[in-house]
Amino acid sequence: MNYRTLSSLLALSLLFGCSSSDEIVPDVPASELYTDAQSSLRSGNWLTAVEKLEALDSRYPFGPYSEQVQLDLIYAYYKNGDLPLALATIERFTRLNPTHSRMDWVLYMRGLSHMAQDQNYMHNIFNIDRSDRDPEPVKSAFTDFKRLLQRYPNSAFAADAEKRMHALKNRLANYDLASADFYLRREAWIAAINRCQELQKTYPDTEAARKSLEIQLEAYKQLGLTDAVARTEELMKLNPI
């Protein structure tokens, strides 16, 4: 099942409510349930907040708290690590409220949720380099933050989004570097050169771009292209690591 299908199914489940939350959360007035949900959010009890917000969403889909409940669900899902649900809720909210005053925040949370999909707790603990990991969530996050800066340059989240884009750019550059090294080790010289040159063109101001010159140099040597070797060596002098 691909991501879009999963998101659609999750969005449908949100639209029709979550029976498990209805069973767990007492049947109290919307105002009381909303107050309880806010208390859970403030205390960082994300799972309880999710249960109460889901109950509100299913019981009072057109109530006075409807839009705020959706925004709170996005945040609670994200903090609870329910990233597909966060993204599905963002998709739903954006579709229903395209001109909402907090769309900059929604777009920011979309970027954060995509970015979080690239992280792995065990890899972080053991400091395992996974530059070769699928970069699609990173590309999506980069696009989200870029769109935020383009649409809402004065947003309170713009500065942080720009910083995150810098980190994401390095992540994507390192992925291309790992791919070029993969081709080099398998003696696919042309593929290694092509990936290096694409990296240098797309992310010229990264350390990975400078490192890729070493791979490019070795591939040219293996092909016996002396002129290309000389040009690459000159580039390495101009762009030291």
TrEMBL record:
Q: Where in the cell is it found?
A: Cell outer membrane
Q: Which Pfam families match?
A: YfiO (PF13525)
Q: Which parts of the chain are coiled coil?
A: 158-216
Q: Where is the Outer membrane lipoprotein BamD-like domain?
A: 27-233
Q: Which InterPro entries match?
A: BamD, BamD-like, TPR-like_helical_dom_sf
Topology with regard to the membrane?
Lipid-anchor
Family membership: Belongs to the BamD family.
Q: Its quaternary structure? A: Part of the Bam complex.
- Quote the function comment for this protein: Part of the outer membrane protein assembly complex, which is involved in assembly and insertion of beta-barrel proteins into the outer membrane.
What NCBIfam families does the entry give?
OM_YfiO (TIGR03302)
Q: What is this protein called?
A: Outer membrane protein assembly factor BamD
Organism lineage string = Bacteria, Pseudomonadati, Pseudomonadota, Gammaproteobacteria, Vibrionales
Name of the coding gene: bamD
